[in-house]
Amino acid sequence: MSTAGRIVRLAERNRAHVHFFLDGEMRHALAGDTVLTAMLASGHTLRQSEFGSEPRAGFCLMGACQDCWIWQEEERPRLRACTTLIGEGLRLRTTPPESWP
Amino acid sequence: MNQATPPRIVIVGAGPAGIRAAATLVEAGLHPTVIDEGYRAGGQIYRRPPAGFGRTPKQLYGSEAAKARALHALFDRLAKDEQLTHCAGSSVIAAHGGQLHVLGEDGVQVVGYERLILATGASDRVAPIPGWQNAGVYSLGAAQIALKAQGVALGRRIVLAGSGPLLTLVGAQLVEAGADVAAVLDTSPWHQQVRGFSGVAARPVVALRGMALRARLGRRYHAGVTLERIEADGQGVAALRWRDAGGRQQLTSCDMIGMGWHLRAETHLADLAGCAFTYDEQWRQWLPKTDEMGRAGNGVYFAGDGVRLLGADGAEIAGRLAAAACLADSGCRAPSVSADLRKLVRLERFARGLARAFPWPAAMVRALPDEAIVCRCENVTAAAVREGTDFGGCEANRVKSLSRAGMGRCQGRYCQLAAVELVAAQTGCMLEAVGRFRAQAPVRPAPIGAFLRED
Q1: Which of A16, B115, B182, B300 could connect to B296 by a Cys-Cys bridge, CB 3.0–4.6 Å?
Q2: Which site among A39, A40, A50, A67 would you substitute to test the B interface, given the most B Cβ atoms closer than 10 Å to its Cβ?
Q3: Greatest CA span in chain A, whole angstroms?
Q4: What is the pLDDT of residues B395-439, one digit of tens each?
Q5: Residue ranges matching CATH 3.50.50.60 in chain B
Q6: Mutate to test the interface with B, among A12, A42, A46 (most CBs of B within 10 A)
Q7: Is A26 on the interface with B (CB under 8 A)?
Q8: Which domain holds residue A53?
Q9: CB-CB: which of B44, B234, B376 is closest to A67?
Q10: For the CA atoms of B279, B280, B285, B287, what is the dihedral angle to 10 degrees?
Q11: CATH no., domain B126-261
Q12: How many CA atoms lie within 13 A of B236 on its CB side?
């Protein structure tokens, strides 16, 4: 099943729906999705590289490359999208908050 | 040596090696602590999906389902019966003087150890292709994790490129799951693959299984290719340019590329624990120096792909051996190891055959155009690495400081083998003389807040 974003769901499609917020906009995902899966179900990239013009969408999915950093609006701001599960109502942002964590 | 109280033994990693090591220690009456980045034990190869997923082990792990199920059940039982302490979702970020710094949900904790078993595994060994910094380029391992742990493909039209057993396996798994795999591009030519045959024949069943998987790829599979450039648009990957074995130019449109050339041992903690390394010509990487049991000295032991790239079956054996060495050194009764040592010899012969059949693409890396990105973390180019040798000479760490390749967030995990290859080519030195990037703590990025404590 193709999604609006990068990923194609090939299995495990009968899971509960959850919603979350990305840069203030509401998005949908499935319970058990990682943040990376959830974001790439409705988009093609995760964030902008700080060192080049091209956007990034993760690379290793095992917590080693650090390509999939995403930030939360709440405390404990930074997370690795590939190793964090999406939660109902999670508020995410694609850029770091201005204040020091 | 006899000790009145049992030694405090910490195992890092809960893949096949870590689980077998833990079980062997428990059988001897000890209570190890197992620290693992995953939330559920299994490692990458036997990684389990989150709760609420419904595929069976057979669907997830294919021919290896029984092994996966046995390891999961064993570990879960030991954890439930409190015969070991399981620190899940935790990263060891530093090791020094008998202490580990462990980053978990509640910040950084210090865990002391008398003996340490490092079963940190491996990640994909990747070689840069011009344009690989774009969104939609992933490691082969990533493509497999996405399928196994999330049930998704990371693109609508997929090209896999590289060499090694994982290339064929991931290709076959994606095709089986219904993904659109446009091409599977192997940089190893047929004549090279045949050269590894005598070694690969040490495990005929595994070799035949590999050939059967390869057959399922059909006309998608091409051997002896040269990878030239990844084309991209605003959303990421759009196509891969490559040359076939006959030198003809090919362009395959795709929105996702999975790449990898076998594995790179995860050795950062070995470095911080003060272990010696040896250069392995065949794997073209530096590996921790141990005896056949995995004993590195000073109370440190190794098991699994973090020290010898033998795959999951070898990791289970090595886990038992490392634990046996640990027990013997602690004055405890250790299980017999002669059968395991014999099996390991056969697995080693097989693995060396694979290394010969599916080599690292050294010539392709050495020929990288100057503008190609080598370090994905900070977009350091091949030119910057080459220029680093003007003042840094052929020593890896001086070129690292000058070019910043290897100083980004992944700490050289995905660029260092390509970077030292460029340094060797530029200076005319042997790879062994170039050396390796020294690991620095923390070996995973940690927020400053994790080190702060409320008093």
Answers
A1: B300
A2: A67
A3: 41
A4: 999 999 999 999 999 999 999 999 999 999 999 999 999 999 999
A5: 9-123+264-335, 126-261
A6: A12
A7: no
A8: 17-93
A9: B376
A10: -70
A11: 3.50.50.60
A12: 32
